Amino acid sequence: AFAVMRLTKPTLFTNIPVTCEERDLPGNLFNQLMKDDPSTVKGAEALMLGEMLTLPQNFGNIFLGETFSSYISVHNDSNQVVKDILVKADLQTSSQRLNLSASSAAVAELKPDCCIDDVIHHEVKEIGTHILVCAVSYTTQTGEKMYFRKFFKFQVLKPLDVKTKFYNAETDEVFLEAQIQNITTSPMFMEKVSLEPSIMYNVAELNAIDTAGESESTFGSRTYLQPMDTRQYLYCLKPKQEFAEKAGVIKGVTVIGKLDIVWKTNLGERGRLQTSQLQRMAPGYGDVRLSLETIPDTVNLEEPFNITCKITNCSERTMDLVLEMCNTNSIHWCGVSGRQLGKLHPSSSLHLALTLLSSVQGLQSVSGLRLTDTFLKRTYEYDDIAQVCVISSKFKQES
């Protein structure tokens, strides 16, 4: 005989409380019965959740990332001794077949009413149908070789729904928003959600707040995720210095990293998921990229202020650049327009300190920069580079 049982943690006993008012016919009978019930919580007998543990009554659900454990028992129901018993347990998935047997050696003999026990463990890494194939071969007293198999099919479900969004900052920083939803029927304790960056990036987690020198999670001290609830995690990725200096390296499709998620359910069952490598399409900057290194947030009306620009040659050829500054209705450039910037080699950069002033109050857009490559006679226009808040100097003094 062959028996297979799944090993899972027990669950808390639940009952349905039956109560009535004292003036009803049963009087205080139902309340007294609940108080005398040893499975209820003393002082809170009307709660459905008791304080006793019960063994699982069914196979239950198996989720991706959890560890599947099973108890296998082969029992000799006959009155004869059998020899050379070999027990084999394989797990068949949609893509592979795994041997889960603890030992591949045959047992010499098995006496009547005796059994061979084995416990198997497997971390589930695939979604879909799984088939546990258990096979037993043995030899009877007459020397006849016997063999039989049993199949146990179960479904592996997805516990979490993970969605990611990328946001490109004006600098080379990339913000990753990960939305994690609990799609099981029980709450989860989120033990760890971290981002393992690729070799090109450094990562900073933005899911904690420093309070009195201590880091406190934005989700509170008890990071439980209820069924169908969604939680958003935010990360900031910045290219490492050796990659940031090479303008042509971070272009096209780049690998950001992968999310590592660890959770616990019920009585401490642990699950872990790692996403595949997350990829994002790096923004195209063309042949020449212009970015702002420094710019003030607030400036005074009709007073000069300084900005610092960074010009990077993203092409594979040397450029000879000329800078032109065109005034707009509100922004006026201070300095000489049409000046030579010199030759700029591929993947190299130069910094420019520029001065301008605004003649209109409010939120104004910095526009009007033109770069011309004298080799190809090609002009690159840069408008809406950034915004500054222009206020009156009188208003600033009064405030």
Automatic annotation (TrEMBL):
InterPro entries the UniProt entry points to: TRAPPC13, TRAPPC13_C, TRAPPC13_M, TRAPPC13_N
Source lineage: Eukaryota, Metazoa, Chordata, Craniata, Vertebrata
Domain (Trafficking protein particle complex subunit 13 middle): residue spans on this chain: 160-283
Protein name: Trafficking protein particle complex subunit 13
Boundaries of every Trafficking protein particle complex subunit 13 N-terminal domain copy: 3-156
Domain of life: Eukaryota
GO CC annotations on file: TRAPPIII protein complex
Residues in Trafficking protein particle complex subunit 13 C-terminal domain copies: 296-390
Quaternary structure and interacting proteins, as annotated: Part of the multisubunit TRAPP (transport protein particle) complex.
